[in-house]
Each structure stands twice: as structure tokens, then as C-alpha cells.
Amino acid sequence: MTLFGYRLPGMSSLILWGLLWEFVGQSGMTFFVPPLSEVLSTLFEVVQTAAFQKALYETTYAFLAGVFFAIAIGIPVGILMGKNRLLDELLLPWVNVFLSAPLTALVPVLMVLFGFGMKAIIITTTLFGIWIIILNSRAGVKQINRSLVEMAHSFGASPLDAFFKIYFWAALPEILGGVRIGIIRAVKGVIIGQLLISIVGFGALFELYSANFLMAHFWAVLIVLFALAFTISEFLAYLERRVSYYAAKR
Amino acid sequence: MAMSQIDPVVIDNAESAVSTRNISKNYGDVEALRDLSLEFPRGQLTSLLGPSGCGKTTLLKIIAGLLEPTSGEVEVNGKTVTGPGPDRAFVFQDFALLPWASVIRNVAFGLEMRGMGKSEREDIAAKYIKEVGLGGFEHSYPHELSGGMRQRVGLARALSVDAEVLLMDEPFSAVDEQTRRKFQEDLLALVQNENKTFIFVTHSIEEAVYVSDQIALLLPRPSRVHEIIRPSNFRSKGVDNIRRDPEYLDIVDEIWASLRTYVE
After folding, report:
1. In this structure, are B28 and B130 located in the same domain?
2. Are residues B156 and B186 in the same domain?
3. Which among A143, A148, A155, A244 is the top mutation candidate for probing chain B, defined by the most B β-carbons within 10 Å of its own β-carbon?
4. Category of A7 on φ-ψ map: left (φ > 0), alpha (ψ -120 to 50) or beta
5. What is the CB-side half-sphere exposure of residue A22 using CA atoms within 13 A?
6. Which of A21, B86, B195, B222 is 20 to 30 Å apart from A164, CA to CA?
């Protein structure tokens, strides 16, 4: 975008919003919003503390494990649903129910089933992310060009070959789209898990800071979390663009 | 020139590479093909010509083993077809290229499915890419090529598996007129040079008469073979003279007279 003939660098609107934040913080309108400068300096203190690093480790571990299961289970299940009518009829209603269900309400049930530890948090994370991954992988396979399938068949592709060399690649643009949304949902899942199941990781930090009205700390951790989620999402959007050249021509 | 029966002398001379015996195909109550028997002489190009809905693509897919006939059987070199096999290769109307794979990977796909090693199959693929005139485009992607070039990739893929029978489903219908003419000339050369049997589906009368050694005219409702036509004279006169040969023009007219009533 250009303003008064000057080209503005990307994301320069952030500067404006940052200034507004600083202004509101300095004016002392509400204790809830400390000045951005204070939040940032707290951020640099906080990231060096052992408590933060432990929280980061615990959250990353639960998040990665949860996302791993969501992807490793979600993609094959979605592809198989797209290929197999019977499986589709069996599973689709459940996928749709869970996709739109308020999963937070399920978390207490998960606690009863899987205890109060890391296992329940990982399962919560997986449950938040997996449904959209399944649904998108399925949609990707559904729109595959019939003649690609016939082509593979006529050149003697085995079912395994067809799965890995045709279906997976044909569905890849949709799969990556699903994975990106699934991962954003999994970020919610891991934090909700940590807040509701056992107070560990970033959930514990949020709990600690807000209970003690340490708003600068609270915002600092939140910024870190937003930045992480945003980075992951942008990285996946980049991967999506890498394959988009063939998305329209399958 | 047109005969309503297969000329027995011709059949004796050229042994059949593919035969279909009493093929019927029903989709529910709809009869796509009824009791269809045809012989495809070895080393020649036979086209299946007819109005849309006459089941010509269905018949081709049954020969390919992609569809199962409701009754009847297909024999390729005396062996009954039960599914796709290495003795047949298919060229698709919409090219059916893998959009995420380079030209060379696409061409080598059939060989890859046969478990051939990477360097060996890419050597073979490179050879056929040159042969269809796409040398230098080995590492391009399908979306970077024109429609005609994409079909050349499809053709190279079918040639590289070295099948005896080449099945072509309206291969030139998605390319422009000028490219199509070039393709037709190249196809004549291909039939000459490769000792393969070609089965060619088309809805273009001129195209069928131009490229075929034998034309099977199919009519719909119920689908059946109406006529087998074997152009004889003009093929030896050179590609430039075919389109103004009297026999060529007569056959085109005759076919149109047969088809006219079936075209809405």
C-alpha cells in the first residue's frame, strides 16, 4: 500500500495499533492494559525465567504430540473415507458432529477417562485438530479427476501405489488447508486442556498471572503464544501456496 | 467401397490382435452395448466412429479392462481380458497427467508402476519424449505446456510401456484444429513405424477416414456395429494428397449419410 506517495512496508498497520496500545496504557485508563513498552520489557524478562521455559517445553510437547496424532490419523482416515463409500457412510456423521460440537464440554469426560496428566491434554489437542483434517482430506479425494484414477488403474497401479502416488498428491492442496486450520484449532485445544485438565504449561502461567493481576506478564505470554500460532499458520500457508499451482488443474 | 460385412479375405491376411465377442454392457436398464463383435487387425489402426451415446468409449474402456462387460469377452492375442494389462496402453481424452509431476515423471509413470528402477525408466522416458517432439521439456510441468504438448506427454507415456495395443480415447478432441492436423499426420507415421495395433475412438468423420485402416461405424439405440469400412487406395498416395482423394471424399460423404439421421 502507498500513502502520500510513500510505499509502506508490510504489516505497518501493526505500528499504528501498537502506538494506540501504548497510548491507552500510558493514559492509565484501566489496569487491565499496561503500556506496550512495559509488556515488551516484561516479555524479555519472562522468557528467561525457568517457569516460562518449563511452560514452553510442556506446551510444545503436548501440542506437537497432539498435532502428530491428528495428522497421522486424520489424513489416512480422510483419504479412506473419500475412497470408500461404506466407511464414508459410517464415519461422516460423527466427523460432522465433532467438527461443530463444543469440544470444551467434552474435556471433563476426557479427564475421567484418561486422568489428569499429559495424556488427557494430548488427546484434547488431537480432538480439537483432527476433524477438519479428516473432512478436508476427504474433500480433496472426492474432487479427484476420475481419469487420473483410471489412468493409474490402466497402467497397473496397485492399491498402495494409487494411495501414495495419486490420491495423496491429488488431495494435497486440500489436506494442507485442513492441516493449517486443524493446527490453529489444536493451539486452542492445548491451552484449554492445560487450563481445564491440569494446570501446567502456558495454562498455568495464564492462571498464575491473571490471579495475581500481573497484567504485563499476562500479555507478554499471550503475545508469545499468538506469535507462535501465527508463525506456524503462515508457514503452512506458504506450503499451501507451493502446491497451489496444480490445485486448479487436477 | 463400404461393405456391411467384414471382408473375409482381409481378415485372413491380417490376423487379429484384439477381438471382442458378443459384448453387451448394461447400466441398469440402459443398454450401452448390445451383442457387439469386432476384429482388430494386428499392426493396423481401427477407429470406432459414431454419434455421441453410441458406446464407443464404453467399448474402448471394456477392451482396456477398465470396465467389465455385462456379457461377452475380449481377447487380446488369444488371451481373455480380465482387467488392465501390460499388453495395452491407454491415451486419455483429457490427457490424465499428474499435475504435480514433471513431464519425465509422467512419461515414466507406467514403467514406475511396473517396478522399474528410476534411472532405467527415465532413460526410456527421455527417449520417447524426444520421439514425440518434446525434447527439452523433460523437467517442465503439465500446466506449463499447451494442450497439444500435454497430449504428446500422454502419448509418450503410452508408448514408453511398449504395449502391443494402443487405445486412444478421442485423443485429439481437446486440442486446436491446427495441432490436430499435425497429430493426425504424426499418427499415420506412428502406425507405419511402430508395429502396434491402434484402436482409436473419435466422433470426427474426417479424422476417422484420414487416419484409419479400418473404420467401425457404430450406431446407437441399441448400440451395434452398423458397417465396417476399409479405405484402400489413398493411403499410399502420401499424407498431402489424402484429403483431396475422391475415395476419401466419397467415404466421408457415405458415413455422413449413414449418421445423419442419428444426430440430433
Report:
1. no
2. no
3. A155
4. beta
5. 10
6. B86
Looking up cell 474432487 gives: A143
pTM summary value: 0.78
B70 with B26, same domain: the answer is: yes
Residue B67 lies in a domain: yes
Kindly list the structural domains of chain A, giving each domain's residue range(s) and its CATH number in brackets, ordered by start: 46-246 (1.10.3720.10)
Residue B14: predicted pLDDT: 59
Q: Which residues of A touch B100 (CB under 8 A)?
A: 169, 172, 243, 246
pLDDT tops 70 at residue B2 = no
User: Residue A71 in contact with residue A182, Cβ under 8 Å?
Assistant: yes
Alpha carbon of B95: minimum distance to chain A alpha carbons (Å):
8
**Domain span at B186:** 8-87+164-262
Q: Which three cell numbers stand for residue B135?
A: 525434447
> Would you say B60 and B105 are in contact if contact means Cβ atoms under 8 Å apart?
no
Question: Do B116 and B230 fall into the same domain?
Answer: no
Phi-psi region of B238 (alpha: psi -120 to 50; beta: other; left: phi over 0): left
Rounded Cα gap, residues B213 and B104, in angstroms = 32
Residue B195 inside a domain? The answer is yes
User: Number of structural domains, chain B?
Assistant: 2
CB within 8 Å of chain B, chain A residues 164-223: 165-166, 169, 172
Interfacial A residues in 121-160 facing B (CB < 8 Å) = 145, 147-148, 150-158
